[in-house]
Each structure stands twice: as structure tokens, then as C-alpha cells.
Amino acid sequence: MATKTASSYRIQGETGEWEVVIGLEVHAQVTSNAKLFSGAATAFGADPNSQVSLIDAAMPGMLPTPNRECIRQAVRTGMAIGAVINKWSRFDRKNYFYADLPQGYQISQLFHPLVGEGEVTISLDDKDPEAEVKTIGVERIHVEQDAGKLIHDQHPNRSYVDLNRAGVALMEIVSKPDMRSPAEAGAYLSKLRAILRYVGSCDGNMDQGSMRADVNVSVRKPGEPFGTRTETKNVNSVRFVMQAIEVEARRQVEVLESGGRIVQETRLFDPDRAETRSMRSKEDAHDYRYFPDPDLLPLELDDSFLEECRQSLPELPDAKRRRYEESLGLTPYNAAVLTAEAETARWFEALLAESARIQKKGEQEVARSAANWLLSDLYGALNRLGKGIEESPVSPEAGAELLSLIADGTISNTLGKQVFEIMLETGEAPGKIVEERGMKQTSDTGAIEAVIAEVLAKNPNQLEQYRGGKEALFGFFVGQTMKAMAGKANPAVVNELLKKALS
């Protein structure tokens, strides 16, 4: 049994409680125009071996040249987590032999990484302003080239190799062993992914392999020194990372309590069987015979380059969330949801800017209205359609026009929902829909008074009960009036005239 509270997460073994110690090594594919040391393309899903240069294939005489954009994106990522940027860094060769590694070594950075220590602040419940907040240390970010990919299911007794990924630029973001529960690891990975997507240095598409995590897990009795860790390789979703931690931690507790010992090794997580399996013993740095790459000069960054990187950074999620709460007056929940993903924040910003331009109202009033509509109506529709906000059939500009029509009384909230459904189906502008389909709200007091008189005449029993003290029936009369006018009556006018008629 495991205790599930945030920082006090424990696994209950036969000999008592065990604490889990977790560190993550996140490999994030750099968003760039080419690979780390060649001009080959990096598009996902290309035909096998169609994006391979002579350098990627390690042909004789081919020399690597660092891609400036890859270095720039890694520096910007480091700045986004408040990390130390090393103005002098160096590439090393990590030597091992495998079929999908044409050079027989990987160009990486061991001794002098591009980015030093930083930190990521997480909340175990972003939607709760009172939730526990914790800072997770980042030890380093270094850049390195990816290997290719072996394909084993194309032939009964042969394996094929696809070198499209060979040479792709990766940032390896190495956390400190500061996490103590699967929930903390999940929150850290989600927050890191959000930061990368805001910065634009990685698309964060874990299902496409552009972001994956190696999960380091050990267990210990609370207060004791760290235990021996294992590394579960290439876990490709937040949910699987959390599952892998729980499964591996329980396995280690069972081994230790049965008198065994944990071996430092590399393991594989099988989500279908909910188990980790041993792949190979874990190599130490000296096993790779690291040495400085003789084909590459050290990287030396000047102040103007660093300043350009710093100036290019966008407003990051924590700062944006604070601004939404403090300046726009949004609730902590709404601010958290709107800033969790860069695409949602950008969509909301566009909606807000257009709404403010059209409505000429106070910023907070417009912001609250826009946030509530996006998170209820639009999100509800997108969930129903199985689409993300970047695929929304309604643009921010069209959404702003719809909100303006509601705000100025042209249509009611009820009519607004009907117009929105038509917008989803047809893609037409809300103003055009309202005009062509005669959906404008009426505030004609004479017409509304006539309908009210008719409603009261048709419901004498309810009228008698209301005047006898059953005031809850007021809503019934409002509903009947709105129904009789096909939802086109101004609700505020209906309420005012009904109170007068019933008094």
C-alpha cells in the first residue's frame, strides 16, 4: 500500500515505510531548421533514410559544424528556468558501438555543458492557489546528437536501420534527485514541457518521440542515505512516467525486503504489463571513454548573443498566470487552465485583444467574459469534436465578435449559444448568422408586454400561487415569456416588465 499525499508519499512494505527518490533525464528535440551538425531536415514521419546527410551517415572525411540555432534554443531554454549559462563549453565523444550509431560514438557534452544549474517550480495542483509548491533543481542542460532507429518488424529474420533521427539535436535536461512521488515527477515533467513549448525550443510532442524521459528511481528508509538507483529508459508520456516510478519503486522494495540487492542497471517499462524489465547493466562514464571531440572547437558565447537570446524570450507561464490573476482579475483556476499550454494562452490573448478592441469596456470585465466563454463553451465544443484549440473551427476573431454581440444586447446568452453551434457547423461569422436568420434580441417593451399579458392569461393557477406568496414561480413566468418569444426577448427587459405586471 502507498500513502498518496504529496510530499509524504510512502510505500508501505513489510518492514515499514519506504521513501522514493526520483530524478529525470529529459531528452527534448530542439526546434530548429536542421540537425545539430548537418543541414539535413528533421520532419517527423518522413520516409526511412530520406533525411540523412553524408555527415549523419559518418562518411569518411565529413566534419561536423554546430548549428547556431540549436545552440541558441538550448541557451534560451536555460534562461527560461533561471539557469547558469556557460559562456565556454565543449563537445565530447561518448564512445559505444551500436547498429544505429554510424560514427561509433555520440557527440555530447559531459565535462563542460552549455547550461549549468537552474530550477523548475511545480505545484501539485495548479488549479488550487493553496496547493503545495516545490522547487525542483536542474543540474544541467547539455546538447547532443540523437542516434538512429532499428526496425525489427519488417522482416522475419533481419533488422533494418533508419538514420533519419541520427544527428537530430537533443537537449538533455537533467534534474536533481529532488522528487519524492510520482505526482511530483508528473508535475515537473508537465511544467517543463509547458516551458519548452512557450519558449519554442521543443514542440513537446511525446507521442512522436520529440520529448522523452529516462526515469531514475531508488528507494530508502526515510532519513537514510540514497539507495542504488535504476534508470528506466525512453518513457514517452507523463502518465507512463508516473506509472513507471510506482512500479519500479514497489519492485525495489520487494527485492530489498526479501534480502536481495538492487543492481545499478538500465530497465524498460512495459505499460501493458505494468512492469519494468532489465535491459543491461548501467554503464558508468568511464565505460564510454569520453574525451574532447577533436573535430569541434569549444563553444564561446559573447554577450551580444546572450542578450539576443534573453530578449527573444516570451512571457513564461508563471509570470503570465500572475498577470492574469492580478491585472485581469481572473480566478486562480481560470488563470491556471489558460496558461497551462502555450497554444491556449496564445488563443486567449488573441481573443482578449480583439474583444477589447470591439467592446470598448474595462479590461477586467472583458477578460472575465472571454475566459469564461473559452473555458466553458469553446472547450466543451472542442472536447465534443475531439479537437485541440489549435484546430478550433472558430477563430479568436469570430469568438470576439460573438461575445460583442452578446455584450451589447444584440443577442441574449441563450441565442449566443445557438449562434455558436451554427458557427461550429458552418464556419460563418456570427454577425452574418444573426442578420440572415433573424436572431436579433428584441427590447421592444410593447411587444414584450403583450406576450407577458398572454402568458399570465394562460396560467391563472400559477398566477394565483405567485400572488399567494410562492415567489419561486417568477422563473416559470420568465421561461414561458422567453419561450413564447423564441428566446429573442431581452431577459433584463422581460424581468423588469414581469415584476411590474405581477405586482
TrEMBL record:
SUPFAM superfamilies named among the record's database cross-references: GatB/YqeY motif, Glutamine synthetase/guanido kinase
Signal peptide feature range: none
Occurrences of domain Asn/Gln amidotransferase (ranges): 346-502
Keywords: ATP-binding, Ligase, Nucleotide-binding, Protein biosynthesis, Transferase
InterPro entries referenced in this protein's UniProt entry, alphabetically: Asn/Gln-tRNA_amidoTrfase_suB/E (IPR017959), Asn/Gln-tRNA_Trfase_suB/E_cat (IPR006075), Asn/Gln_amidotransferase (IPR018027), Asn/Gln_tRNA_amidoTrase-B-like (IPR003789), GatB (IPR004413), GatB_C_1 (IPR042114), GatB_Yqey_C_2 (IPR023168), Gln-tRNA_amidoTrfase_suB_CS (IPR017958)
Record flagged with keyword Transcription: no
EC number in record: 6.3.5.-
Biological processes, Gene Ontology terms: glutaminyl-tRNAGln biosynthesis via transamidation; translation
UniProt key word Nucleotide-binding: yes
Domain of life the protein comes from: Bacteria
Family according to the record: Belongs to the GatB/GatE family. GatB subfamily.
Function: Allows the formation of correctly charged Asn-tRNA(Asn) or Gln-tRNA(Gln) through the transamidation of misacylated Asp-tRNA(Asn) or Glu-tRNA(Gln) in organisms which lack either or both of asparaginyl-tRNA or glutaminyl-tRNA synthetases. The reaction takes place in the presence of glutamine and ATP through an activated phospho-Asp-tRNA(Asn) or phospho-Glu-tRNA(Gln).
Subunit structure: Heterotrimer of A, B and C subunits.
Protein name, entry field: Aspartyl/glutamyl-tRNA(Asn/Gln) amidotransferase subunit B
Species name: Sphingomonas trueperi
